[in-house]
Design goal:
Blueprint: E1 2-4, H1 8-11, E2 23-24, E3 53-57, E4 63-68, E5 75-82, H2 96-103, H3 115-122, E6 131-136, E7 140-147, H4 151-166, H5 172-188, H6 192-204, H7 219-224, H8 227-237, E8 243-249, H9 253-264, H10 316-323
Parallel strand pairs: 1-6, 2-3, 4-8
Antiparallel strand pairs: 3-4, 5-7, 5-8, 6-7
Helix pairs in contact: 2-8, 4-9
Length: 324
Amino acid sequence: MTVRPLALALGLAAASTAYVFARPIQTPTPAAGVATDPATAPLDATIPVDARITTGTLPNGLRYYIRVNHKPEQRAELRLVVNAGSVLEDDDQRGLAHVVEHMSFNGTAHFPKLDIINFMQSIGMRFGPSVNAFTSFDETVYMLQIPTDRAEVIDRSLLILEDWAHAVTFDPVEIDKERGVITEEWRLGRGAGARLQDKQFPVLLQGSRYANRLPIGQMDIVQHFPPERLVQFYKDWYRPDLMAVVAVGDFDPAAMERQIRAHFGALTNPPNERPRPKYDVPDHAGTSYAIASDPEARTTSVSVYHLEPARDQSTVGAYRRQIV
């Protein structure tokens, strides 16, 4: 269970967009301007869908992506991807996106206390390599690696993802225990790199919400937040229209699709749901700079960043330009 704050350094431009290219369940006839063979397609053609991926959207807005991959044999990776991270925290919630991630391993409706870890260990998997999660600015991702030789293991693993999506229990006793765990995680990260980052990010992200929403949060808030503010973050942002389920591995794709629909189809979005805002890094006049030093830093480096609007990546030519 980790935080990933550094992905923004090169990844955040004025308005970044992520694209997932996949095949609808009912493959449509390619529209005009859609490439069917990237090797011969004109550069302005839309990148073709990947015929090896099955994707769909449930009525509640949850999306899923399924791909068969037979190596390694009888193994699969399952992910629950939540389009919510620390940038969505209110001022009194700074750090709570990360706390929600931690609490997801401390009790859900079908897996009380540490039963998720116990189940994964019972099927030969280990916490860390086989079951883990991370919190970043714009997303929280939960990951399971499982054996696929038994149908009941796949079904129960999807039940874990389902519980993470809507049935974390937030036991107040466990919340108080986790405050110390996260404080220790923060303390272990307070080396020279973190202290230099503290000086650089306000300049690099000047005028942006990202500058004061590092996923690890503020420890005075983590140590003292009322549990209802944690639950509120979960209710606001953990909802099917902001989620996707990803399954890749050695399994029957039709059976996997049926199971995903069965587990996630009944999830509902909250009434009067909060709009999911998008944030960017605004342009600024002139050149900004930061000079930072620390007595424990062992190397010297110079970095230059150029802020520009995110490029479109939806066409063959745009993707080629990105690679170049």
